[in-house]
């Protein structure tokens, strides 16, 4: 298992931390930006919107591909099967990856350094939460270790390794 705190029998505390950080990212982005100006501002807006769109697509696709196995808490449902198809064939945690992309996208669109720092904090929290979740998944599903070894955590690999 893991020495990470579970913050509840199913990891409920981790779920409560997420929306707080998301609200802080949004609030910082809208109230403290823009910190950047000039020609880079337009590029930042275009890049940020791209990240938000990609993040939202990852989130929606992750929820749809999980179907009845979806739960907001890190401990898997008792009646759920391991999902390795769809977006889960590309990444292990597309919903978390989508949240990270959208948070950074919003921070960049609004050009807020504080929101970028909060998005980074959200990414760290989701990384820790995913480690806890994976310890429960590995204990529950015999094939999880092999799946974890062949599938990236949050984002698809851009370059495939030769071998």
Offer a concise description of the structure:
With 163 residues, the protein is an all-alpha fold. The chain contains 5 helices and no strands. Helix 1 (12-32) runs antiparallel to helix 4 and helix 2 (39-66) packs antiparallel against helix 3 (94-109).
Tell me about this structure:
The protein has 163 residues and is mainly alpha-helical. The chain is built from five helices and no strands. The longest helix has 28 residues, at 39-66. It starts with 11 loop residues before the first helix and ends in a 13-residue tail after the last helix.
Mean pLDDT over the full residue set: 86
DSSP helix fraction = 55-70%
Structural class: mainly alpha
**How much of the polypeptide forms β-strand, as a percent range?**
under 5%
Number of helices: 5
What series of H and E elements makes up the topology?
A: HHHHH
According to DSSP, the number of beta strands is 0
Measure the end-to-end span. 31 Å
C-alpha Rg (nearest Å): 17 Å
The biggest sheet amounts to:
none
Poorly predicted residue ranges: none
Gross morphology = globular
Keywords:
globular, single chain, 5 helices, mainly alpha, 163 residues, 0% strand
Give the helix/strand layout.
Layout: H1 12-32, H2 39-66, H3 94-109, H4 113-140, H5 144-150
Helix pairs in contact: 1-3, 1-4, 2-3, 3-4
């Amino acid at each position: 298992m893991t020495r990470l705190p579970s913050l509840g029998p199913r990891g409920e505390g981790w779920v409560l931390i997420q929306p707080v950080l998301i609200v802080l990212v949004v609030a910082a982005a809208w109230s403290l930006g823009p910190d950047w100006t000039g020609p880079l501002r337009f590029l930042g807006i275009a890049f940020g919107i791209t990240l938000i769109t990609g993040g939202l697509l990852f989130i929606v696709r992750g929820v749809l591909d999980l179907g009845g196995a979806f739960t907001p808490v890190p401990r898997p449902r008792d009646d759920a099967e391991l999902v390795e198809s769809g977006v889960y064939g590309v990444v292990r945690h597309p919903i978390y990856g989508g949240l990270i992309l959208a948070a950074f996208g919003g921070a960049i669109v609004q050009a807020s350094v504080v929101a970028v720092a909060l998005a980074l904090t959200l990414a760290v929290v989701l990384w820790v939460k995913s480690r806890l979740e994976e310890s429960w998944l590995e204990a529950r599903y015999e094939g999880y270790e092999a799946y974890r070894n062949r599938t990236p955590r949050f984002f698809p690999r851009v370059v495939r390794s030769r071998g």
